Amino acid sequence: MRTLALAALLALAGAAAQADGIGGIFQTQANDDGNVGMVQFYDCGGKYCGRLIKSFDKAGKEIKSPHAGKNIVAGMTDDGGGKFSGGTIWDPGADKTYKSKMELSGKTLNVSGCVAVFCKTQRWVKVK
Fold this sequence. Notes:
With 128 residues, the protein is α+β, with helices and mostly antiparallel strands. Helices cover 16% and strands 54% of the residues. The protein has one helix at 2-22; strands at 24-27, 36-43, 48-56, 62-63, 71-80, 83-91, 96-105, 108-115, 118-126. Strands 1-2-3-5-6-7-8-9 form an 8-stranded antiparallel barrel. The relative contact order is 0.16.
């Protein structure tokens, strides 16, 4: 009985650790203008979404964005092992949405937007 309780506790701890890994705030890679965004991940109906909460110019000064509060990443499924798939990513500059996948390695989140088999990947860094 003790072994079963311990196994259940360890399984819950592992699930919480994974959720904590993608939870939080990530700084995006700079866009063509040198601006970066802060994207906060959260549970959205059993999947993961990421909303833009702040933007900064290339000098590091906070700038207002009409996209603040909007989801940049939506509907990601946790595949385990730091991999996420099945969601989308929205490029506000081009106003286009792409199929997406992500992979978390330490504090680096590789975020890919894909059209057919062609993908472009950005590296986002966890800041909080």
